TrEMBL record:
Protein's UniProt name: UDP-N-acetylmuramoyl-tripeptide--D-alanyl-D-alanine ligase
E.C. numbers: 6.3.2.10
Compartments (UniProt record): Cytoplasm
UniProt similarity note: Belongs to the MurCDEF family. MurF subfamily.
Keywords: ATP-binding, Cell cycle, Cell division, Cell shape, Cell wall biogenesis/degradation, Cytoplasm, Ligase, Nucleotide-binding, Peptidoglycan synthesis
Enzyme class name: ligase
Source organism: Rhodovibrio salinarum
Gene: murF
Domain Mur ligase central: 109-298
Length: 476
């Protein structure tokens, strides 16, 4: 039997709530579409939904109990519940209790790009060294972080959390819940610029992750980032005595000596606090090389085995929507699909173009980019979208399809031979790209989450003539 994560008694004590029934929860859920038998379902509220409507459904799917702040009309009279004053506050209380009882070394990650990928690489590396818990997907906001903390097993050796933000003050509130032993800022670039006055303001918001670092903890910073001095100063202001750095700069504690970047992997030579290492990263792109340097700095910060961590990178895999690759079978042959549809900003776009530029083509194949809007760039949006033309040409991409009002600026900036077509939205773009792709091509799909580029992925998946082709479809 799986050891309970929460019992009626300790959950009630943690939340100062009232439990009905004697129940034991082995997991936590806020979504009945993915709930597992034995989960404690938390009925959260949002601007356009109320989880209380689904409490009865959660119980019918095997939930151990439901956390509610009022009794829904359709809830059975004998339902097992945890009644609290407010379910968001109740979730945060469970998260705080989960963190307080944990014995794990806790690590936190933020940054303008690379948060989720670096979190997954760190999870992967530490999992070879002890029981490791990490936030699912990109659960990095005001409900995702306390949910991840509430899911933290008491016997975990390591716990890895991703912290995100759209506005100042958000990361500070999250990191004070997480209280990490080590905190990493991957990099600071122009993302969410529409909500900030400058990149410097973004750097200050990312530096909030240092506010919750435990005494004696380590701040891990990108030595190559233009805002390094600002971030290092923030660490000093927080009286953090341990600052570790990574990058190509000669002063970096974890320093890249060389990297041979191939179509599907990279061979890396680096030095980690004096230890020289050679290792392979099983994912393509220079950005993945940088990500692994940050991971090694974090492993070292919590006294892990950096050599073992480096060896683990040979088996890294991409998550859905974050560079995952697969072949789609057409009548005349296959084309390769690079699904990077989850999110986008100018820096991650350039990194994706580099990966596409290194991809191996089939006979008569072309490198094709299907791109949706980069959102939250404010007054700089048109300039930043048009600025993608240069890295596209440098990567040797043959054809670019775009959709959305913001991407119109890129279409106007591209040389005419590179313009495959522009669509109003991703639904139309999917049909356009599907009509033009051919065997031997490699197709990159990328855009901000709000651009709903999953629709383009679905349109390309629908071309697959192999059995079970629809299994690879994704939500937008």
């Amino acid at each position: 039997m799986t050891e309970p994560l929460w019992t009626a008694q300790n959950a009630a004590k943690a939340t100062r709530g009232t439990a009905t029934g004697d129940w034991h929860a082995t997991g936590m859920s806020i979504d009945t579409r993915t709930i597992q038998p034995g989960d404690l379902f938390v009925a959260l509220r949002g601007p356009s939904f109320d989880g209380h409507r689904f409490a009865a459904d959660a119980l019918s799917k095997g939930a151990a109990a439901v956390m509610i702040d009022h009794v829904p009309d359709n809830l059975p009279a004998d339902a097992k519940t945890l009644r609290v004053t407010d379910t968001q506050a109740g979730l945060e209380a469970l998260g705080a209790a989960g963190r307080a009882r944990a014995r794990a070394k806790v690590l936190a990650i933020t940054g303008s790009v690379g948060k989720t990928g670096t979190k997954e690489a760190l999870r992967h590396a530490l999992s070879t060294q002890g029981k490791t818990h990490a936030s699912s997907a990109s659960f990095n906001n005001h409900w995702g972080v306390p949910l991840s903390l509430a899911r933290l097993p008491q016997d975990a050796a390591y716990a890895v959390f991703e912290l995100g933000m759209n506005h100042p003050g958000e990361i500070g509130a999250l990191v004070r819940q997480v209280r990490p032993h080590a905190a990493l800022i991957t990099t600071v670039v122009a993302a969410h610029l529409g909500n900030f006055d400058s990149e410097e303001a973004i750097a200050d918001a990312k530096a909030e992750i240092l506010e919750g670092l435990l005494n004696g903890g380590t701040a891990v910073l990108n030595r190559d980032n233009v805002h390094f001095a600002r971030l290092e100063r923030a660490a000093r202001e927080q009286q953090i005595s341990h600052v570790a750095t990574f990058g190509e700069a000669g002063e970096a504690d974890v320093r890249l000596l060389s990297a041979d970047c191939h179509a599907n992997a990279s061979d890396v030579h680096a030095v980690v606090h004096g230890l020289e290492l050679h290792f392979r990263v099983a994912l393509p792109g220079r950005h993945w090389v940088t990500n692994t340097l940050g991971v090694l700095a974090m492993v070292h910060a919590v006294d892990g085995d950096v050599r073992q961590a480096a060896d683990s990178f040979a088996t890294l895999t991409s998550a859905t929507g974050r560079g995952a690759r697969r072949h789609i079978q057409l009548a005349a042959g296959t084309f390769e699909l690079i699904d990077d549809s989850y999110n986008a900003n100018p820096t991650s776009m350039a990194a994706a173009f580099d990966v596409l530029g290194r991809a191996e083509l089939g006979p008569d194949g072309r490198r094709i980019a299907a791109l949706g809007d980069m959102l939250e760039l404010g007054l700089h949006s048109a300039e930043l979208h048009a600025g993608l033309a240069a890295p596209i040409e440098q990567a040797g991409i043959h054809l670019v399809f775009t959709c959305g009002a913001e991407m119109a600026a890129l279409e106007a900036a591209l040389p005419a031979p590179l313009c495959g077509g522009h669509a109003e939205d991703s639904e139309a773009l999917g049909a356009l790209v599907a009509a033009n792709v051919r065997a031997g091509d490699v197709v990159l799909v990328k855009g901000s989450a709000g651009a709903k580029m999953g629709r383009v992925i679905r349109a390309l998946d629908a071309l697959d003539q192999t059995n079970g082709s629809q299994e690879g479809s994704h939500a937008s």
